[in-house]
């Protein structure tokens, strides 16, 4: 029994810090993750450098990612057509296009409502029929502006993303406050509506419930792909009250304790955590950008 983990510290982890980590230090973090056996790494997002200056060096990061292990896959995130085109130009392995399940978060995050965001992304993806895309739904379970997201609303957005041709769909508990029961019910509704789409979960961790949700989702829904960030860093700058990501080192230890293999070396992962801490200690404050 095994699961796949995508570490998102270089994107989701760093985007919510009040500092800007240098490209050199980001590459050092990538090196440490690869050394620990992490095979899937979300390396950057192609978003406005004015709104998210922590990601302003996305092109340089992608160009310098370590390629010593051909089994490692790097991904980047895009919220709109401009981001998709920028990501394509870098040659990144995978691109995850993301929209929100709620209008409130979508407007705060992208300046568009979900229907507008989905339409723009669908048009962009049609320009690249030879590329494989991943999909993601933010605020899939709880929105800071609208509260609980009904499963039917999530299924509607998920179905629109599936219609674009994404091969895996990640459901994000952006605030980290969704209960295990809520995640299971909503993810189960998406699985039933879209049985041919692989689902993954991106869990933040407000109340310490995320580890239990992972085990339950794996055993009850058969989900085998999860996002996490070493050190538990991260959050969404445009989702008030968002908590940090599920920590990769805690997730790996918890899965191994349940006899679920990840292929990741726990001791080496500890060194990766130290690398991130050092990178943040050396970073420039946002006021200096």
TrEMBL record:
Signal sequence, renumbered to the chain: none
UniProt-listed GO biological process terms: ketone body biosynthetic process; L-leucine catabolic process
Domain of life: Bacteria
Record GO terms (molecular function): acyltransferase activity, acyl groups converted into alkyl on transfer; hydroxymethylglutaryl-CoA lyase activity; metal ion binding
Pyruvate carboxyltransferase domain sequence ranges: 3-270
NCBIfam families, alphabetized: PRK05692.1
Record organism: Rhodococcus wratislaviensis NBRC 100605
InterPro entries: AIPM/Hcit_synth_CS, Aldolase_TIM, HMGL, PYR_CT
Protein name: Putative hydroxymethylglutaryl-CoA lyase
Keywords recorded for this protein, A-Z: Lyase, Metal-binding, Transferase
Record family assignment: Belongs to the HMG-CoA lyase family. Belongs to the alpha-IPM synthase/homocitrate synthase family.
């Amino acid at each position: 029994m095994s699961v796949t983990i995508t570490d998102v510290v270089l994107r989701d982890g760093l985007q919510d810090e009040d500092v800007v980590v240098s490209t050199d230090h980001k590459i050092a973090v990538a090196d440490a993750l690869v050394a620990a056996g992490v095979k899937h790494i979300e390396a950057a997002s192609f978003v406005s450098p004015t709104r998210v200056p922590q990601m302003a060096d996305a092109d340089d990061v992608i160009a310098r990612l370590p390629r010593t292990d051909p089994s490692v896959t790097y991904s980047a995130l895009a919220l709109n057509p401009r981001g998709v085109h920028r990501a394509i130009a870098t040659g990144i392995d995978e691109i995850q296009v993301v929209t929100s399940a709620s209008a409130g978060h979508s407007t705060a995050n992208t300046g568009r409502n979900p229907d507008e965001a989905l339409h723009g992304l669908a048009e962009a993806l049609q320009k690249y029929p030879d590329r494989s895309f991943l999909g993601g739904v933010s605020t899939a379970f709880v929105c800071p502006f609208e509260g609980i997201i009904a499963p039917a609303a999530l299924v509607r957005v998920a179905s629109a993303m599936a219609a674009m041709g994404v091969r895996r769909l990640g459901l994000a508990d952006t605030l980290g406050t969704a209960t295990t029961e809520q995640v299971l019910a909503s993810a189960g509704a998406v699985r039933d509506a879209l049985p041919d789409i692989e689902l993954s979960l991106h869990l933040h961790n407000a109340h310490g419930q995320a580890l239990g949700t992972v085990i339950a989702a794996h055993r009850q829904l058969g989900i085998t792909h999860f996002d996490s960030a070493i050190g538990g860093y991260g959050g969404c700058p445009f989702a008030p009250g968002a908590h940090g990501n599920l920590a990769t080192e805690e997730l790996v230890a918890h899965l191994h304790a349940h006899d679920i293999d990840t292929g990741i070396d726990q001791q080496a992962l500890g060194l990766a955590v130290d690398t991130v801490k050092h990178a943040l200690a050396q970073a420039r404050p946002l006021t200096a950008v």
